[in-house]
Design a protein that fits this description.
Keywords: Hydrolase, Metal-binding, Zinc
Helix content: 25-40%
Pfam family, one: Lactamase_B
CATH superfamily: Ribonuclease Z/Hydroxyacylglutathione hydrolase-like
Shape: globular
Radius of gyration: 20 Å
Structural class: alpha/beta
Organism: Dokdonella immobilis
Protein name: Metallo-beta-lactamase superfamily protein
Family: Belongs to the metallo-beta-lactamase superfamily.
Number of strands: 12
CATH architecture: 4-Layer Sandwich
Bound molecules: zinc ion
Strand content: 15-25%
Length: 309
């Protein structure tokens, strides 16, 4: 009996140490941003507009979203596509949950299936159609990265190309489990783009989608090999769509990375992700007018117009 309690005591101590190590609210350091970095010029057309298309959510807890999150505090991980209307072409940023989400979820790793639940909204393609926008007329879907919850809605957008960097196209074509759903989508048309050697907000390279500075994409690898940050500048508003570099705004505001268990499940390279968070935190401090939008946090875009009521 005494031996049992000794063993139990040791076991509980190991559990406690593991928990403290994993969830201790460590904040990352915010690096000094180079003084020469300035807010880039942009010339968005006056009729450019952006809309939020909420398509569902996964349900989790703050403790799993960022170090320092409260255990038991419910968090919705929203799945939102954003429509950016521009005279040169309408683009979605990510595609949200599509009509095939049940079948896609059933293919996820078992650990993810048993630790999360989800709820469905109206898929992006249906919201577009209801607003009188033919989904096939989109110029493309600009992906922050090709994880299943960002490409899910592509199944409802046949013929609409997924715009992504070469590195992310290679990720989709590869055999990593986290790319399996994108990899096996029968009609997923990839449109890879290249970055120019044009610095943008401290990133060495960038891709200016329409040539007017209104939508500028920069490589931000780590979460996946070809993850990007998409900067959108409209008349009077600036956004940075940061994908899954952080899941919730606190990741940039504190700043803090995901706890080990979450990093282990979803990040390809945790060190790279940490560096991306630190840079975003530095940008957030210097340029608070840029609204940082984590892919699964609806709070920063709560006031953005919806496409349908
Ligand atoms: Zn992801
Ligand atoms: Zn995601």
């Amino acid at each position: 009996m005494r031996r049992f309690f000794k063993w139990l005591g040791g076991f509980l101590l190991v559990l406690l140490v593991l928990n403290v190590w994993m969830f201790w609210p460590v904040r990352l350091a915010v690096p000094l941003l180079d003084a020469s970095i300035d807010l880039p010029a942009a010339h968005p057309p006056p009729d450019m507009a952006i809309y939020a298309l909420p398509t569902g959510a996964m349900h989790s807890q703050a403790v799993f979203a960022y170090r320092g999150g409260t255990p038991g505090e419910h968090r919705d991980f929203t799945m939102t596509a954003y429509l950016v209307r521009h005279p040169r072409g309408d683009l979605l940023i990510d595609s949200g949950f599509g009509t095939q989400v049940d079948a896609q979820f059933a293919r996820l790793p078992m650990l993810m299936q048993v630790t999360s639940t989800y709820s469905k909204g109206t898929p992006a393609a249906r919201q577009l159609a209801a607003a009188g926008i033919e989904p096939g007329s989109l110029a493309g879907v600009l992906l922050t990265h090709a994880h299943w919850d960002h490409v899910s809605g592509m199944t409802d957008l046949p013929g609409v190309p997924a715009w992504l960097p070469e590195a992310e196209a290679a990720f989709v074509h590869g055999d990593l489990p986290m790319a399996a759903i994108a990899h096996s989508m029968p009609n997923l048309a990839l449109r890879p783009y290249a970055f120019a050697d044009t610095p943008y907000l401290g990133y060495a390279r960038s891709f200016d989608v329409w040539g007017d500075g209104s939508i500028v994409v920069v490589p931000a690898p780590g979460h996946t090999s070809g993850s990007v940050v998409i900067f959108v500048t409209l008349p009077g508003a600036r956004y940075a769509f940061v994908g899954d570099i952080v899941w919730q705004s606190e990741g940039i505001e504190r700043p803090a990375e995901r706890p080990w268990i979450s990093r282990h499940l979803v990040d390809l390279d945790g060190d790279q992700v940490r560096a991306q968070i630190e840079h975003l935190a530095a940008l957030h401090q210097r340029f608070p007018q840029i609204v940082m939008v984590p892919a699964h946090d609806a709070r920063p875009t709560a006031a953005m117009p919806r496409l349908t009521p």
